[in-house]
């Protein structure tokens, strides 16, 4: 599975001597805006206080960013559904695949059983096995798991080989464990961090993005949070504005025959609504409405995945409920539509944030210096202002 590469700026250069490891803070530079900082609020629903997946109570996010030398630009991002024993108190979950050119460990068991029993790990394509190892190491060492002999590790990926020496496989199981153990429920770092450190979207620097929506109490009062790892292509549209066209970077430009939209996106959706695995799959399906609004091409070479889970106590697959017949809460079909709107809006905004918060990144791949520019904020402002 290939990353998006329409406007990657490549210049041949002699392979530079190895650089010392660089901290994430040193790479981030001046703070970059979110879409709301630019005065745009996609959709009609309001976000939660953090405008992040962690607005769903109990959800935590951990990230390990790996930047070193002239070619390591990768990392790990994990979403932990709740703070209890995930293996014993599983969460119902649904999976949707728009295009399946990807590697998502644990997918078949999610579809068969409708539940998740581990943190959800995002990393690069060739590190999925390391992600599984990390989840296994962490799960098996938890107190009370001495008798566990089977674990369904959920690990997704996108290919960051355009900016990262992906064949070096620098991500370790220890990095995954560290991301899980340092996960927090507060603000989520966005842009070129964690599993988004080396990703590319629409020919610009992509990354990790997040957003949330809070339904009014008349519609249930539930929260929907989304986290994305953006690494795909198409014709970028931001809140309806034709940014990709105006900036001259988009798929199928007439003057450039080899423009590509291949790549991938991982979308993780959390909610506190008491949903069955069937309705969580329906919720995951609607995340792709938000993806489509950004101008995604859903190309042949893309891997487009959405995983949705519920943290509601009333639907958790606890040991007691799994031991026999049990009654669980079930939000009705006829009241799902507001949640569908919420997930589409949050997905769209999370993707915008993944691009806007990302920093220009340079690497040396196969002896060539590669620079992927971040979105030009002033140019984006100008395009957004055209319709006003």
UniProtKB/TrEMBL annotation:
Q: Does the keyword Signal apply?
A: yes
**Which interval of the chain is the signal sequence?**
1-26
Coiled-coil residues are: none
Q: Which CDD domains match?
A: DmpA
According to the UniProt entry, its GO molecular function terms are: aminopeptidase activity
Please indicate if the UniProt record lists Signal as a keyword: yes
- Which InterPro entries did the record assign? ArgJ-like_dom_sf, Peptidase_S58_DmpA
Member of which family? Belongs to the peptidase S58 family.
Protein name stated in the entry: S58 family peptidase
Starting at the broadest rank, the lineage of the source organism is: Bacteria, Pseudomonadati, Pseudomonadota, Alphaproteobacteria, Caulobacterales
